[in-house]
Amino acid sequence: MSSIGDGTRAVRAGLPEPQQYEPTLPGPVFAAHFHLSGEPVGPYTYGRETNPTWTHLEKAIGELEAPGEEVVTTVFASGMAAISAVLFSQTRAGDIVVLPNDGYQALPLVREQLEAYGVEVRTAPTGGDAQLAALEGAKLLWIETPSNPGLDVCDVRKLVEAAHAGGTLVAVDNTLATPIGQRPLELGADFAVASDTKGMTGHGDILLGHVTCRDAGLAAGVRRWRKVVGAIPGPMEAWLAHRSLATLQLRIERQCSTALTLAEALTKRAEVTGLRYPGLPSDPSYPVAVRQMRRFGSVVSFELADRETAERFLEALRLVDDATSFGGLRSTAERRGRWGGDAVSEGFVRFSVGAEDPEDLLADVAQALDAATR
Ligand code: PLP
User: What is the CATH number of domain 6-245?
Assistant: First the structure.
């Protein structure tokens, strides 16, 4: 059903046909193996290969990623498991892969591993479509847009067109936007990938990832990789994720709207510099974001004068946890430079906007800025 709204789709996504006396969303199936006599054919054989709880969740995510289309979704134990599944199932020694040089901070580890297997890795920044210059002869282009934590945006349609013209596959890490904010397959990508640890599940209590593709052959490679590596989600996590998807639109709508309000408020604070939010008309990402995104995400990034000011700010916040990750119902913020993996200043703050009342959150941020810069 592609004609219904995002909220309607989210509450019904992946539900089986109603059956008398059965629950709306069947509970988690805990099984290492299934009764199986004769030929060992599916749908359910062994728990590393398939599980009915994953089937419901995969159907739900597929409906959100590509409404009304036939797609294949594969769920994983984490976002990194999903990312690795695409990169390592699709490439061989001698292939060329283009990665962002400003993406999630575990990507350099992936790069090392790809290179150890004989894959050539080129990198390009996310903003400005600099990937175009690195595409020649590449097997796969990896895009993360908006990028974490810099919130740069690249033109997915334009990059896909150039990549496909040269036979290059395109994968988009859609973690920050979620399918409520952006649908990579509609923009032409071959793989929509995400850490569902973040906004997709939104409660900060599970790790999960997924890969969705249209092409059955590409999907088969990803599924085979999951079977080989065994990076499978537990049934409880898969069920909790599906339960959380029912509120996806409500959560993301609220979080994105408050994120924009917060970004607008921060433009008026002299102690805040380097403010980034793709939904802010003055942001460098805005012209491209507005063409390909439907909502602009829950993350706002900005800089304070130095490490000490940022630490005082985080300490003074009362409604915002000093914690990593993003996309959750409870606002979190962190001084990103503490990890050492991103090219950010010491005073750089990544702020993930939750579902608190906007006026409460804005008041808390204002008092924390006052306290930090007094
Ligand atoms: N992709 C992005 C953009 C991320 O921010 C993260 C985690 O922060 C990941 C992938 C990895 O996800 P996970 O922690 O679920 O393995």
Answer: 3.40.640.10
